[in-house]
Amino acid sequence: MNQVVHFNTVSDYNQFNKNNTLHPLVSVVDLSQSDPRAAHKMTFDVYCVVLKQTQCGDLRYGNNTYDYQDGTLVFFAPGQIVEVISEEVYQPTGLALVFHPDLLLNTPLGKRMQEFGFFSYHTSEALHLSDKEKKLVIECFEKISYELQQSIDKHSKMLITSNIELFLNYCIRFYDRQFITRDNVNKGVLEKFEELMNDYFSSDKPQNIGLPSVSWCADELHLSANYFGDLIKKETGKTAQEYIQAKVIDVAKEKIFDGDKSISQVAYDLGFKYPQHFTRLFKQKVGVSPLEYRSLN
C-alpha cells in the first residue's frame, strides 16, 4: 500500500521536504532537499503550487506529450487528494509555493481566490511553461522567498500576498496562452463535446437522468469541470452551461413540431422536471414561448 501523507500545515510540507519553516503560513520550498521517494498519496489542507524541473516530454497529457520540455506548474487546493505514481524511487526536483488559507484573511487576494479556477484542474491539465514564463515564475518565487527571510513586520503580509497574487495573475495569462497554443487539442474536445450532446439527446438519458450538467459532461470527457468550463469559454465565447442550453434549444425547436406531443411532453423528453422551466428558458433564448413558436412556424 502506498504511503499517505497529510499536509495540514505549511510546517508539515516543509518537514516532509526537509526545508526550514521561516513563516508559519507560507513557504517557498526547494524540493531537491527532500529525500528520494516512491509512489505515495498526499492530502492537502493548504494551497500548493509545484514548479517541476523535469523533462516534460516524458510525461503524457491524454494521448499527447506536454507542449514544452522545460517545466510544468501543478496546482493543489485545500481538500484535494493527489496520487504520485512511480514504479521506482525518484529524487524530486523543482520549487513549490505553499500557503495556508489563513494567510489570505483580510487581504485583497483572499477575496479573489475563487477567480483562480486552475486550483481545481486535474494534474493532467497542468500549466506547461516556456523559458520566459518559467523565468517569471522563478522571479516571483524569489521575491516571496526574499520577504520570508526578512524580519516579520507590519508590511510582511501585504508584500507576501501581493507577490502571490502577482504570480497567480501571471498564471491566468499563461493559461490563456496555453488554450491558444493547444488549439488543435481544444478543437478535438469541442468536437467530442458536440458529439456527446448529440448522443445524449438521441438517447433516453434526458428522461432517465435529466438535463446534462457541466460536471457530467466534463467527467465524460475526462476533464475537470473548471478546466472544461474555461476551455469552452475561450473557444466559443459561451460558458459551458450556455453551450448546453443552446443545444437544448436547438433540439427543442425540432421536437416542438411533433404535433402529437404537447409542450409539456417535449419538456419531459428534453429532461426538464417542470415544463414551466422549459418554457421560461425557451422564451428567454428565442423570444417567444414554445407554443407561440409552434404557431408562428
From TrEMBL:
Residues 191-296 form the HTH araC/xylS-type domain. Keywords: DNA-binding, Transcription, Transcription regulation. SUPFAM superfamilies: Homeodomain-like. Gene3D superfamilies: Homeodomain-like. The keyword Heme does not apply. Coiled coil: none annotated. It holds the Pfam family HTH_18. InterPro entries: Homeodomain-like_sf, HTH_AraC, Tscrpt_reg_AraC-type_HTH. This is Helix-turn-helix transcriptional regulator.
